[in-house]
Amino acid sequence: MFQYFKVQSTLVKNIHIEQLRKTSLRLFSYSKVSFGLNNEKSKEFLEDHKQIAVTKHIPVTKKTLLNKIINERNMQHFKKENMQNGKTEILEFAKHLEYSCLKDSLIGLSELQQLYVSLNPDKESVSEFHVGKKQHLDNEFVLLQKVASLLQMAKFQELTHDQIPYTLGKHPVSEGVLIHIDLNQYDVLRIWILGEEEQSLIHGWRDTMKYFFMNMFKKQPKAISIYNRVVIAVRLKKQNKLLFKSFKDLPQSSIEYVLPEASITMSINDKKLITTFASACGLSILIKLCTIFIDYNAKWTFIVGSVSGLLTLHTWNSYVKKRNQYLNNTSKILYYKTLATNKNILQLITDSAVNEILKSTLLCYIFIQNMKDSKPVSETELGITVQDLELSIESWFFKEFHIQLDFDAQDGLRKLEQLGLLKVTRKGLKTHLDVLTLNQSINTLSKISATTDVNLVDIRSNNLLEIKKLPLDINLYKEKLLQEQTETFSRGWN
Question: Distance between CA atoms of 153 and 155, rounded to whole angstroms?
C-alpha cells in the first residue's frame, strides 16, 4: 500500500474532473447500468436518490458486503456454473486479497511507527539515538504526508487552510458562550473528516415541549449535523511533539471542543446586560451618596441600586453556568467520543485504509467480471469502461443498502493492476477494463502470498524492524515527493 503514497495535487484535479463528468451523467445512466431496473423502478430510484446524503466511503463491513455479493442472484458468472462453486471461489479470492492488503499495510504501519518515535508525546522509553531539530521536522513532514495519503485512501476529506479559520473563528456555541481559537499558536493543525449526517435533538415529549417553548422566542434547530469520524493532527509552537486525536459523532460546529488552547469568553448579549445593570447600580449608588451630602432622602436610589446589583449578579452567575456547561460537554466528548490518540491512531487509520481498499478492490473485480459475462461477445472483447463500472456499483449499492454511494474506482483498480489481475485497453479517450477469471486470479494471488519475504506473524508482534532494518532516507523521500507531483497519476482512469 505504501508504495503508492503520492502527493495528491494531480490526482485531486483528475478526480475532480471525473466527478463533474459523473455527476452530469449519473441521473441519465443509473437506469441503464443497474441490475435490470425497469422504467417505473428507475423513476422511483431517481426520486429517492435525490433525498439521500451522498457518501464517498463504503459504509458497510467487508463481511456484510461479501455476503451480499455471493448471494446476489443477478451475478452472471454464478448462472454459468454450479452456484456453490462460485461462492467458494469468491470466498477464496477474498481471503487471498485480504492477505495481500494486510501485508502491505503492516509494512507501512511499521514505517509510520518508526517515524513517530521521536514525535510521540506518550513515549515511555528513552531512545538511544539523538534526533536533531532538522531531522525531527523532516520526520514530521514525511509522517504527515503518509498519514494524509492513508486517510485519503480511507475516504477522509481534509479541511483546507481556508476552511479552518472559518470553522474555528470566534463564534458562539450552543451553551451560550463565545469560543476563540488562536491559529497563530499552532505550528501544525490539520483536520480530516469522514461522513456527515443529521442527528435529531428531540428524543421525547420533554424535548418536544422544550423545543416549542424555546421556539416562541428564538428559532431552534430540530437537528444538528455531525461528522461520523474526525482525525486531528496538532502541534503547538511551544511544543515539539505531534499530537494525533480521533473522534466519532462530533458536531460540525464543535470541532473547537477537541483542540487545546481554546479561550472561553462572555457572549456579547451577556456583556451588554452586565454593563447596563452594573452602570445602573453604580449610578444609583452615586446618586445616593450625593443626596446624603445635600441632606435629601431619595429612597428610590436604594431600590434601583439593589435591583441592578441583583441582576448583575444573576447575569454573571448565568455566564458561569454556561461556561461550566461548555466544560462539561467538552469532558463528555473527550471521554465518550474519543476513538484513539497518538501512536494508537496510526493503527486505526491503517486499518480504515486497508478495509476501504479491500472493499473497493473486491467490488471492482466482481463487477467487472459480472458485467463482462453479461455483455455481448463483441462488446466484451473491449472490456468495461470505468464510468459504467462506477455507476453500476452505485446503483447496486442503492438497491441493496439504500445508500447513495459516490464510488471512486481509482484505488481498487490500482490495487488490481498492482497484483497483476487487471487488463487495461485504451480506445480513443476511453479506458476499457478486463480481469482474469476467478481461478486465474486465485492462482496469481496464491503465488504472491507464497513468495512474500515478510512473515505476518512477526509483523503483528512488532518485530518487523528486526527483519527489515532499512533506515528511512528522509531527503530522498522528499525529493521523490516533489518529483511525483508532476508525474504521479498523470494518466488517471478515463
Answer: 5
Contact between residue 319 and residue 177 where contact means Cβ atoms under 8 Å apart:
yes
DSSP per residue, 31-84: HHHSSS--HHHHHHHHHHHTTS-EESS--S-HHHHHHHHHT-TT-HHHHHS-HH
Cα 359 to chain centroid distance, Å, stands at 17
Confidence of residue 463 (pLDDT cuts 50, 70, 90): very low
CB within 8 Å of 272: residues ≥ 6 apart: none
Round the CA-based radius of gyration of the chain to a whole number and report it.
Answer: 30
Which of 73-77, 140-144, 410-414, 428-432 is predicted with the least confidence, judged by mean pLDDT?
73-77
Report in angstroms the alpha-carbon separations of 268 from 52, 177, 214, 396: 38, 9, 20, 52
Residue pair 254/281 in contact (Cβ under 8 Å)? The answer is: no
Q: Judging by DSSP bridges, how do beta strands 338-341 and 262-265 pair with one another?
A: unpaired
pLDDT for residue 459: 43
The side-by-side arrangement of strands in the sheet containing 223-236 is 157-158, 186-200, 223-236, 243-251, 338-341
| Among 21-35, 280-294, 388-402, 441-455, the least confident range | 21-35
Length, in residues, of the chain = 494
Report the alpha-carbon distance of residue 363 to residue 427 in Å, rounded. 24
Q: What angle do CA 469, 416, 33 make, to 5 degrees?
A: 155
**Digit-coded pLDDT (tens) for 367-384:** 988 887 666 545 545 678
Residues 6+ apart with CB under 8 A from 421: 365, 435, 436, 441, 444, 445
Report the pLDDT averaged over residues 115-127: 76
> What average pLDDT does range 401-414 have in this prediction?
89
Q: Note the pLDDT of residue 177.
A: 73
- The torsion angles phi and psi of 487, rounded to 5 degrees, stand at -105, -35
Q: Which residues contact 94 (CB under 8 A, 6 or more apart)?
A: 62, 66, 362
Distance CA 374, CA 394 (A): 18
Contact in structure between 158 and 151 (CB atoms under 8 Å): yes
The lowest-confidence range among 38-42, 335-339, 343-347 is 38-42
